[in-house]
Amino acid sequence: MSDLDTATNDLGTPADGLRAVMSDPGAGMGTSEALIEVPAVEPGTAGPPCAYARLRTEQPVVKAQLPNGETGWLISRYADVRAAFADPRLERPLLSAWPPREGDDAPPPCLPTFLEMTGEHHERVRRTVLPLFGRRRLEFMGPRIRAMAEELLDEMVAGAPDRTADLVSAYVEPLPLRVLCETVGLPHEDRDLYLPHTLTLLSASGLSMEEVLAALYALQDYASELISRKEQEGEGEDYVHLLLAESRRPGSELTRDDVVSFVVTMLMAGYKTNMQHTGNALFTLLTHPDQLRRLQEEPAGIGSAVEELLRYIPLMNAINILVAKEDFILHGQHIRAGDAVVPVPASANRDPEAFADPDRLDLTRSPNAHVAFGHGPHTCTGGHLTRLQLATAVQVLLERLPGIELAVPAESVPWDETTPLRAPARLPVRW
């Protein structure tokens, strides 16, 4: 999900900051060097990979072999990552068109997701969609999300006479899907139709173009069919109904295809990432009992705690593909038009140049200008909804089960390591 306005901080205007580094005439044109592999996450952790610490110091821009066999320039420093996301010379390619393929076998492009829209198209869609994720709308959704969380915990407790349960299956997995269905208007009963394709696309960097396209086309077809159903239903309060009503308004900037793209974007960005980050956040809190206790004693600190959990735990490790529209120099490396550039928020958020003692979890950290949601014109549109959902999940859990703790040693917790979004597969807890 994407699309907030470009922000600035003490680094200055991000695009200008990156342009200054890239245009340094003394930087040279760089020399070719052996490809590195994208740093791997250590087993049993969410990341970020420890190898990024060395890259930030020694090779802040380095060419890497990506999981799908392509190459791309990894950018690991905070200032460079933040600037890259906002630089107009770098654009996110269509998943259905990267890596590029020419000739008769080139596949027809899919509709762009919100992350891939550019220029005037991106601006007009952003103007319409942003209010759905604004403060007024989230005030409306807050009580609903809390009610969902409370219901799930009530069911978990009722089904656990021995006061032990798996927090992932009972709470972490179902909550984000229920929130997504409630806000967007996705039928929960259709989950076996759309979830397999969304999970496929989260592994897109390691898949063939054929596999990526099959999942994209399937999601696009599902979204179009769902919208046809919504059109027959008439008015509604979910996001799809609201956007459809806007698209039919005379003079509207939104088209039906844009609503299809919205559904696909939400399916790709609104479920698995939130589920896995919530699981990681709860695991992190349970393995930092002193900070967990402080949060219980000072619940008003949930806002800063959520920001720190977003910084400390990667929402992604290295799956942000941008493509250079022109040649430039960055830290002595000659990046050519058409090259893939991969800014890594997980590394940027652990950069000691931007965060004091970055490898330490500090739920009171302030300021905390992390880049978990990207930066610039494609900042994650759903960032505030993600914050609300995570804050609610933590708050309700600590209120209902104040004595909750891991029921097994932390090192024995099994992990789901099938995608770059690593998370505990199970979280056995007791209370």
From TrEMBL:
InterPro entries: Cyt_P450, Cyt_P450_B, Cyt_P450_sf. It holds the Pfam family p450. CDD domains: CYP107-like. SUPFAM superfamilies: Cytochrome P450. Residues 1-11 have a biased composition (Polar residues). One of its GO terms (molecular function) is heme binding. Residues 1-26 are annotated as: Disordered. Keywords: Heme, Iron, Metal-binding, Monooxygenase, Oxidoreductase. Belongs to the cytochrome P450 family. This is Cytochrome P450.
